[in-house]
């Protein structure tokens, strides 16, 4: 049969377009038969050729080699030469060799490494295709620095490379989610503790792990800009927005329907809003989520709403998380489940070692309440037996039994193991305190008339019975005279159309309009702000309800105080145009110049104003404590800052305003502590209070303050109940394992900078551009990395095409001086504080750590490029006494890396299961570097001398000088050396590697590393099994089966982990040969 003619010449360099071979790089066409092409890939000089690949010839694409591509040529003497491509015109390839020689070649005369990792560098040494030790040292330092970061971050590289502070409890949440093959979680940290940061880290890790990642965030409209800004500035995901990553407002249902079906991850912020079903729009949103959420393995819902309160609303949220465990048609069962937790919650709060002598009654209470829980009975009996021996609170048996019972109760009776909650009481250092309320008292000229007319209307309405909406409108008007609402409209909507009533309401509305134009309030504000600003470095946030009031305040303050006043205006977000930073952000970025920010109600959501010395001034007091909480929540979020003082303007002509301030202060305590978790109590008391005020007037507010406040008031009773319930669902206040290692690795930025620069700049010749715009003296100057193309000066020693392919995510197309032929990266810094400072965030600085595309591309280079993998040196040291009669002693250096032996053959490594397995394995058995020195005679050098370990010195340094054995020097070695050491060089290299491998595997550090990992793995496995069995024992039907299925999956994962750890990979990373002599054989 005739061979089908191919347009490609035999021996041509080609790529295969099939997805299976996309990442294999360049191969060589060996032949085509009947439309089937045979492609030969090349691993390295001296290595066995990989198996031929056969594919349809239609999948072949000719590969032109970009400038700086490394090519290999075996000359007539069978020595390998390494060169760099200067030009490839498709037929002839122009190559330059290290000695300056340049020559034209056809493709069949050259070889190019494929793009798969180089697993074994020993063949390079065996055929003497070695590189300078400088490259080996640069690569080794970089690889070790990167391995240290991977170890410290436990597989969560997104936490390290994001422009955020490293916080233990946030890292713990992120690690728990990313270590779970089912990443469906409700993140329920209390307000201000950083749920957004936790979700964004998980989101960025998804984009790091999966090149095809697609995600959708669904957020309240007011939070769209804030989310987009955080994802861009802090998490480096700006390039993904509106393409692979969509931030969609709750009310943009049309756009949501277009993108949600392709999402691999869904994030829902303020998820408790989903429980609202009062409008068709809200119902449609919930149904869209209910339709798509069950199929996703990545679902994050964010909500600080406590469990107690509206069970029906909370069930709707939990149903999205787990429809099997929380079916919508079992509301009664869900209520029973919440109620049954109360006894457990109260008992768990007492299970403390210091209560050793008082546990008896609580254990009896458990047995009486849950006699049908056999595991509970068993664990109570076990603890009781220990208590019968009268142990002290430090007794080990007592502590084990106590913790065993507590674990069972928490795991069995918590609402869901994928509900993670941190509370402010557990991390009191995480947010600034609230420092109470101070008053600014003034007297309005128009207030008395308005107040008298409002009282007349209140008394007149008493004869008309109960109208809840009207009562609430009147109370709102009474405590918030600047609300601007129409009482005529309120009465009309309620059907109260009596002419006399409407006339009275109209009189109140007219008086309210005159009150709004009274300058007394704004004048009192100006006077107090002048006083506050006398304290250096203090910034003020003025909260108004109405935009009109905020406009007036801004105008008056700007006139009276100066230009350091800005008005908050929400940013308009349009996915088709770039959003410029709003003017009001000068308040954050230039705190010394802009010291006053004026806001209306639109700033009560989606704005972060924390940090520094901030003061809140409330121009008015809305009638809901939730609104005050929202305002203060802008200021006391996670981060450093002084305690937040609140100033409240009070018109002494309006006693209801002063009484309401006391309700907020002494009743709810909102100016001293967060009341975010009390929202259900707030909602349940608002309507009765409005009715009581309509009956009693100001006195009702005073009574209400007394009912709420005090150690046994409504607020403290609700707090106690919440504390008990949260003790089951909240994450414990405990030391977070691994945080010390993470902080140590992050703080060692100077050593990391040296390793990065040595490889990227000194070795690969990337351009380094300092970005110190103001010429300030700093230890961490921002910089850009640029690709230097051939033509004038040094050229970067990587192909430009390869640079763009891997570095595209880090190229700043707006960088001054950058171009298509000289791409420059974004601005980077090495020190975290440099990046997270106000100035660093304003400049858009990025933190250079693992997880960033720039570092990832260099990791890819280290895995696939042969440079720095094999070296050979002749070391001449006049003080060294040679033992071998050849004139030089020979030593081999083997640098091994110990890694888990995960079986990835045939597995989709981008699958969530494999990512979790790899992350867990790398956490349990982090990379371990082992260096072994072996003498040419086979003796292992347990304690290598300084003659061996000294840094490479290519120029005369005292009594010694090192000579890199390039191709010419290998051939010029003395005859005695060749006859002694090189007569079976390849065999010698192999036998010494075998000796080094045995030495590495028998090293105490290797054995201890594995045993320690296996111990931790076994402990985790036992805990996961006991927790799963405890949960399953409390479930029934499909929910029980689901729990058992997940437990089986966990058992399989831990079995795979133990196998991967018990017999780990021992990869040879770098190999070198060192000829140690007292003289040099080279006349140089």
Characterize the structure shown.
The protein has 1084 residues and is α/β, with parallel strands linked by helices. It folds into seven domains: 13-116, Roll (SH3 type barrels), CATH 2.30.30.140; 155-326 and 416-426, Rossmann fold (3-Layer(aba) Sandwich); 331-415, no CATH class; 433-440 and 519-653, 3-Layer(aba) Sandwich (Rossmann fold); 447-516, no CATH class; 739-860, no CATH class; 870-1077, no CATH class. It contains 38 helices and 31 strands. A six-stranded parallel β-sheet has the order 12-11-13-14-10-15, with helices on both faces. It has a six-stranded parallel β-sheet with strand order 16-21-20-17-19-18, with helices on both faces. A hairpin with a 4-residue loop joins strand 7 and strand 8 (93-96). The longest helix is centred in the last third of the chain and has 30 residues, at 1004-1033.
**Largest sheet geometry:** 6 strands, parallel
Tell me how many strands there are.
Answer: 31
Q: Runs with pLDDT <50, length 5+? A: 1-5
Strand order of the largest sheet: 12-11-13-14-10-15
- Using the CA coordinates, give the radius of gyration: 36 Å
Task: Please tell me what the overall shape is.
Answer: elongated
- The SS-based structural class is alpha/beta
Please give the alpha-carbon distance between the first and last residues: 61 Å
What percent strand? 15-25%
Integer tally of domains: 7
Number of helices: 38
Helix content: 40-55%
Average pLDDT, rounded to a whole number, is: 90
């Amino acid at each position: 049969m005739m061979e089908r003619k191919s347009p490609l010449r035999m021996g041509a360099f080609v790529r295969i377009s099939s997805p299976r071979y996309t990442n294999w790089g360049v191969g060589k066409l060996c032949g085509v038969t009947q439309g089937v092409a045979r492609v030969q890939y090349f691993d390295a000089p001296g290595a066995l050729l990989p198996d031929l690949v056969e594919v349809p010839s239609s999948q072949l694409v000719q590969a032109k080699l970009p400038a700086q591509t490394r090519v290999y040529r075996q000359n007539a003497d069978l020595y390998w030469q390494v060169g760099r491509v200067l030009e490839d015109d498709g037929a002839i390839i122009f190559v330059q060799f290290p000695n300056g020689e340049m020559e034209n070649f056809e493709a069949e005369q050259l070889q190019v490494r494929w793009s798969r990792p180089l697993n074994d560098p020993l063949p390079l040494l065996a055929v003497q295709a070695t590189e300078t030790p400088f490259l080996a040292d640069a690569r080794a330092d970089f690889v070790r620095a990167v391995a240290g970061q991977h170890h410290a971050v436990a597989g969560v590289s997104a936490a390290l490379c994001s422009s955020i502070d490293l916080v233990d409890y946030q890292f713990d949440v992120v690690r728990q989610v990313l270590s779970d093959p089912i990443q469906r979680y409700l993140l329920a940290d209390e307000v201000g503790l950083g749920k957004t940061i936790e979700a964004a880290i998980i989101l960025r890790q998804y984009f790091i792990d999966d090149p095809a990642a697609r995600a959708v965030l669904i957020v309240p409209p007011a939070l769209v800009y804030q989310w987009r800004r955080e994802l861009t500035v802090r998490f480096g995901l700006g390039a993904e927005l509106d393409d692979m990553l969509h931030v969609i407002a709750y009310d943009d249902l049309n756009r949501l329907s277009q993108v949600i079906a392709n999402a691999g991850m869904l994030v829902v912020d303020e998820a408790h809003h989903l429980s609202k079903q009062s409008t068709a729009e809200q119902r449609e949103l919930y149904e869209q989520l209910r339709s798509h959420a069950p199929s996703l393995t990545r679902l994050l819902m964010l909500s600080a709403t406590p469990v107690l309160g509206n069970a029906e609303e909370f069930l709707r949220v939990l149903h999205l998380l787990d429809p099997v465990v929380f079916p919508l048609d079992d509301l009664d069962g869900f209520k029973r489940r919440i109620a049954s937790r109360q006894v457990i919650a109260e008992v768990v709060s007492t299970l403390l070692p210091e209560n050793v002598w008082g546990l008896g009654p609580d254990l009896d209470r458990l047995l009486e309440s849950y006699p049908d829980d056999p595991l509970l009975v068993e664990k109570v009996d076990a603890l009781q037996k220990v208590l019968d021996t009268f142990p002290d609170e430090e007794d080990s048996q007592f502590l084990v039994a106590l913790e065993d019972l507590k674990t069972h109760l928490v795991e069995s009776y918590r609402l869901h193991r994928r509900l993670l909650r941190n509370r402010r009481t557990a991390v009191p250092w995480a947010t600034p305190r609230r420092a109470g309320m101070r008053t600014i008292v003034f007297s309005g000229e128009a207030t008395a008339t308005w107040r008298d007319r409002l009282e007349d209307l209140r008394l007149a309405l008493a004869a008309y019975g109960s109208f809840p909406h009207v009562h609430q409108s009147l109370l709102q008007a009474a405590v918030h005279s600047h609300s601007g609402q129409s009482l005529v409209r309120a009465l009309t909507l309620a059907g109260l159309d009596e002419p006399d009533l409407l006339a009275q309401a109209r009189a109140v509305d007219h008086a309210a309009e005159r009150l709004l134009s009274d300058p007394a309030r704004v004048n009192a504000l100006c006077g107090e702000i002048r006083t506050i600003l006398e304290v250096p470095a203090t910034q003020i946030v003025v909260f108004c309800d109405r935009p009109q009031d905020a406009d007036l305040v801004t105008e008056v303050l700007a006139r009276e105080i100066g230009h350091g006043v800005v008005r908050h205006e929400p940013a308009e977000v349009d996915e088709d145009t770039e959003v410029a930073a709003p003017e009001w952000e000068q308040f954050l970025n230039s705190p010394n110049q802009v010291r006053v920010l004026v806001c209306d109600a639109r700033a009560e959501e989606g704005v972060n104003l924390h940090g520094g010395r901030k003061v809140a001034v409330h121009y008015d007091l809305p009638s809901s404590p939730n609104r005050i909480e929202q305002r203060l929540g802008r200021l006391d979020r996670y981060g450093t800052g002084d305690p937040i003082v609140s100033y409240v303007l009070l018109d002494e002509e309006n006693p209801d305003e002063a009484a309401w301030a006391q309700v907020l202060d002494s009743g709810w305590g909102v100016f001293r502590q967060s009341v975010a978790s009390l929202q259900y109590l707030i909602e349940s008391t608002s309507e009765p209070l409005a009715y009581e005020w309509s009956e009693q007037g100001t006195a009702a507010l005073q009574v209400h303050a007394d009912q709420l406040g005090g150690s046994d008031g409504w607020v403290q009773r609700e707090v106690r109940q919440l504390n008990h319930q949260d003790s089951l669902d909240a994450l414990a206040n405990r030391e977070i394992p691994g945080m010390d290692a993470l902080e140590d690795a992050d703080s060692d930025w100077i050593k990391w900078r040296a390793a990065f620069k040595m490889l990227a700049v000194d070795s690969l010749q990337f351009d380094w551009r300092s970005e110190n715009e103001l010429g300030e003296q700093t230890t961490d100057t921002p910089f850009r990395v640029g690709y230097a193309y051939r033509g004038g000066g040094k050229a970067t020693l990587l192909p430009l095409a390869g640079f763009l392919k891997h570095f595209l995510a880090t190229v700043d197309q707006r960088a001054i001086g950058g171009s298509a032929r000289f791409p420059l990266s974004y601005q980077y810094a090495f020190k975290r504080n440099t990046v997270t400072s106000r100035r660093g965030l304003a400049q858009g600085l990025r933190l250079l750590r693992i997880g960033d595309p720039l570092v990832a591309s260099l990791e890819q280079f280290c895995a696939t490029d042969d440079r720095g993998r094999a070296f050979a040196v002749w070391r001449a040291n006049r003080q060294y006494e040679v033992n071998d009669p050849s004139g030089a002693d020979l030593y081999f250096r083997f640098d091994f890396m110990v890694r888990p032996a995960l079986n990835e053959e045939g597995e989709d490594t981008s699958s969530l299961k494999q990512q979790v397995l790899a992350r867990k394995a790398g956490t349990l058995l982090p990379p371990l570097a082992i260096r072994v020195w072996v003498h040419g005679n086979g003796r292992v050098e347990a304690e290598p001398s300084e003659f061996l370990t000294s840094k490479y010195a290519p120029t005369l340094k005292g009594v010694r000088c090192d000579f890199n054995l390039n191709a010419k020097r290998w051939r010029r070695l003395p005859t005695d050396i060749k006859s002694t050491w090189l007569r079976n060089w390849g065999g010698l290299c192999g036998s010494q590697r075998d000796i080094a491998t045995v030495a590495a595997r028998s090293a105490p550090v290797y054995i201890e590393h594995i045993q320690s990992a296996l111990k931790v793995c076994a402990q985790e496995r036992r805990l996961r099994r006991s927790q799963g069995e405890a949960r399953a024992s409390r479930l029934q039907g499909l929910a029980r089966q689901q729990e058992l299925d997940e437990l089986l999956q966990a058992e399989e994962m831990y079995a795979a982990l133990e196998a991967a750890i018990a017999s780990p990979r021992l990869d040879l990373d770098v190999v070198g040969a060192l000829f140690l002599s007292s003289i040099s054989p080279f006349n140089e």
